[in-house]
Design brief:
Elements lengths: L1 H20 L5 H24 L1 H6 L6 H33 L6 H10 L1 H24 L1 H18 L3 H7 L4 H15 L3 E2 H29 L4 H37 L10 H6 L1 E2 L2
Helix pairs in contact: 1-10, 1-11, 2-4, 4-5, 4-6, 4-8, 4-11, 6-7, 8-9, 10-11
């Protein structure tokens, strides 16, 4: 147990070292969040008007129009997420090569792989829609099955974006290579991501707990401005943690792919550290 915690802390420190060197990497998850919210807003009205959400939640058989709208929503949302993640991973790889990436470098890489990103988004959208239908129509068993399949898909595609960044391959080949690299090198249990998740879960808890304490202290003052200030600061702190979490995951996936493909990694990521992040069955 102690060894697992030590590896997670070491991995987090190494990821933070890269992020400290290139704080502009936070721009990509920020843009991704804003774009994702815009996508949700633009699809919310037609989804509600068409009854797509209600039909899926009620377990009804969705019509062709409903399925199409839902698929387009998934497709657009995944494309936005993968596009900015590609930019983040591309910039991180430049740093891991010893370079000094800029935001424009990341966007240049992402735009050069737009067609592959769209194809990968189509794959993820299809899988996501199928899992959503299974989850809503099959009750508890469906949710259990959909959850397992969702985890398996996430694990299998963990290195897809770094592969799309590094090689001129299509999305299907990138997904296949991602699964092969994971199975071949470390297996399917991603202890590194679990470590990052636990570390940030603790950070979120502390931020929320601190916000509640401050809110309790200022609530009795009756000052709306002071209460608003505390709430704004809490929102900024939690939002900042979310951006850091997303950036660190992208940096980690970039370094992990370098190690998995046999290229090695320079800088704060040692091969021993990355290898210990994955434990074979």
């Amino acid at each position: 147990m102690f060894d697992k915690l030590s590896r997670s802390v070491a991995l987090l420190r190494a990821s933070l070292a890269v992020l400290r060197a290139d704080k502009e990497l936070l721009v990509f998850p920020l843009c991704s969040t804003i774009a994702s919210l815009l996508v949700v807003a633009s699809f919310a009205l037609p989804l509600v008007a068409s009854g797509a959400l209600e039909s899926l939640d009620a377990g009804e058989s969705p019509g062709a129009g409903t399925v199409l709208i839902a698929f387009l929503f998934y497709l657009t949302q995944y494309f936005v997420i993968f596009f900015f993640n590609t930019a983040l991973v591309g910039a991180a790889m430049i740093r891991l090569d010893g370079g000094d990436p800029t935001v424009s470098d990341g966007f240049r890489i992402a735009f050069s792989r737009v067609s592959a990103i769209l194809g990968y988004a189509a794959i993820a959208a299809t899988v996501g829609l199928i899992l959503r239908i299974i989850e809503e129509r099959a009750g508890f068993i469906g949710r259990w099955i959909a959850g397992l399949l969702g985890i398996a898909f996430t694990v299998a595609t963990f290195l897809t974006v770094p592969i799309l960044v590094s090689r001129g391959v299509g999305p299907i080949e990138a997904v296949k290579e991602s699964a092969v690299l994971l199975k071949k090198t470390w297996g399917e249990n991603i202890a590194g991501n679990v470590g990052l998740g636990l570390a940030f879960a603790l950070a979120y808890f502390l931020a929320i707990a601190g916000a509640f304490v401050l809110f309790y202290l200022v609530a009795g003052s009756g000052s709306g401005m002071l209460i608003g200030f505390v709430l704004a600061m809490a929102a900024i702190a939690i939002g900042g943690l979310a951006l850091m979490h997303a950036a660190l995951q992208g940096i980690y996936s970039a370094a992990l792919y370098r190690y998995a493909s046999g290229g090695g990694v320079d800088g704060p990521f040692s091969n021993e550290l990355l290898q210990s992040a994955f434990r074979p069955k």
